[in-house]
Write a structure and sequence with these properties.
This protein is an alpha+beta fold. It has 5 helices and 7 strands, in the order βαααβββαβαββ. The chain has a 7-stranded mixed β-sheet, with helices on both faces.
Amino acid sequence: MRPRAPSLPDVELRPWRPQEADRLFDLLRREEVTRWFGEASRAPLRHVDEAAERIGRWAQRTAAPLGTWAITAPGRPDPLGSALLFEAPNALHGEVEVGWYLHPDAVGHGYAAAAARRAAQDAFAAGVAEVWALTSVDNLRSRATCARVGMRDLGVVDGLWHDGRSQLFVLSPADLPAP
């Protein structure tokens, strides 16, 4: 019998909108957010035009279930952050990775776990067999989020998909807690 799902807030995933460039810039200008990103995107943004360019690029590359999605929640006027679902860089077998990041004003409410679970459910509905996550071994919040989603901790790996040591997690439909 599967464990019951921990209570998570209601979230929706949708494309970022061009008029939300200011919010995305406010999110990605913060080193406390971008420090956990992959090597190529770790530098904080310096201008709102960079955020607008990212929204445009994401719109061209997003094809459900893969893409970069704005996380929204009832009663919250602005996107809370992003959920990402993408083929892992240097994937050996087409592994799909889930990621997330939140604005500091949205941290600590369960939105990351809710968004990661929603992204995984969308992937499973589209026929993806497993969803993977890599976190920095030092990113305790993301590791806790993986556990809250129901992901299995496979331990520390070195140089898998990204440079350096990471904590590896995997989720299959059978791992999802019962509703």
